[in-house]
Design goal:
This is Rpn family recombination-promoting nuclease/putative transposase. Helix content is 46%, strand content 10%. It contains 11 helices and 6 strands.
Length: 340
């Protein structure tokens, strides 16, 4: 579908960083974590405005003025279906729904269309006129390829259009802008500010990549990420969120597929069921072993060989227990109950 454009209010970007300042992000908080994404951008609206403008590339920039759902830490951050979208209004009262999505999800298209339609329908109360409706613009930032069958396009701009005459478009009502971040990075040819934001979103923990960025709003974003990294409650919630996503994406999907293959190789119905169960267990253990090693390296920089051996042979409940203890441990040895 062709690109849609809409006039909006002027954005004002205020940045305390200069082009010569290079910020080293504190390890631990990935910006692709939707909870971290919301925590940062819902508190710094001028940075969110700059990100939106880099994606939309409208002739007149927008300026976000209000967050409609500022809550960041829900009671159950480990829920697989919790949605961490950011709902904001700009200076023209247009509604923006911004989403960071790190994993593929079904049925994602239907859910997105539903949220956009709700954003439109909930604007009116009984007796109000339709001319009071403001546009609803969805922006989905995907850390995966949504349309792998279209390898040469990463930015999708969708609106209500006539199938035979695409020039006829209700672009002021509903819009959805989808950015496939890894694909966009691979394709290149991006405006400098959009290139900087994509690099930040995908690689904010990579110091070498971040040192190459000179876009002031991105530099300021890295400064705020350092501050957020000192928030123990947020770090813990982000870790729980990562574990929940990893559990669903890796431990279930990959392990189930491995279990099916093992069961089919056995050629028996009971073997199939047993293979699925064994594959799930092995996949969950492998996923947690990987995550635990990464967390220990980030916090302590080194994992002694005896601890590596214990992690490699630990069962699933033990791995889960050690993973939950990482943030509170002052020494790596404190995490293990028995002497090494």
């Amino acid at each position: 579908m062709s690109e849609s454009k809409m006039q909006q209010g002027q954005v004002v970007i205020s940045s305390t960083a200069t082009s010569s300042d290079h910020i080293t992000p504190l390890p631990g908080l990935r910006l692709t974590n939707d909870l971290v994404f919301k925590a940062l951008f819902s508190r710094h609206l001028h940075l969110l405005s700059d990100l939106i403008n880099a994606i939309l590339q409208w002739p007149t920039p927008i300026a976000v003025v209000k967050v409609l759902n500022p809550d960041i830490l829900p009671r159950h951050v480990n829920g697989k279906r919790i949605v961490m979208d950011i709902l904001v209004r700009d200076a023209t009262e247009a509604l923006f729904i911004i989403e960071m999505q790190v994993r593929r999800e079904e049925p994602w298209p239907e859910r997105n269309v539903y949220y956009l339609a709700r954003g439109l329908s909930e604007q009116l109360q009984a007796g109000q006129n339709y001319d009071g409706l403001r546009p609803v613009i969805g922006i989905s930032l995907l850390a995966h390829d949504l349309f792998p069958e279209h390898p040469q396009q990463a930015l999708w701009r969708l609106a209500l259009r006539d199938e035979q005459t695409p020039a006829v478009c209700f672009k002021e009502a509903l819009q959805l802008h989808i950015m496939e971040l890894p694909k966009a990075e691979r394709l290149g040819g991006l405006p400098p500010e959009l290139h900087a934001w994509i690099a930040c979103l995908l690689h904010n923990l990579d110091e070498a990549v971040m040192k190459q960025i000179t876009h002031p709003p991105v530099q300021e974003t890295l400064q705020h990420l350092q501050t957020l990294s000192a928030d123990e409650k947020l770090r813990w919630a982000a870790l729980q969120r990562d574990i929940a996503m990893l559990d669903e994406r890796t431990a279930l999907n990959r392990a189930t597929r491995k279990g099916v293959e093992q069961g089919l190789a056995q050629g028996r119905a009971e073997g199939l069921q047993q293979g699925i169960q064994q594959g799930q267990e092995q996949g969950r253990q492998a996923a947690l072993q990987t995550m635990l090693n990464q967390l220990l390296l980030r916090k302590f920089s080194h994992i002694p060989a005896p601890i590596q051996a214990r992690i490699a042979t630990a069962d699933l409940p033990t791995l889960q227990q050690w993973t939950m203890q990482v943030l509170d441990a002052e020494r790596i040895e404190d995490m293990f109950e028995s002497p090494l």
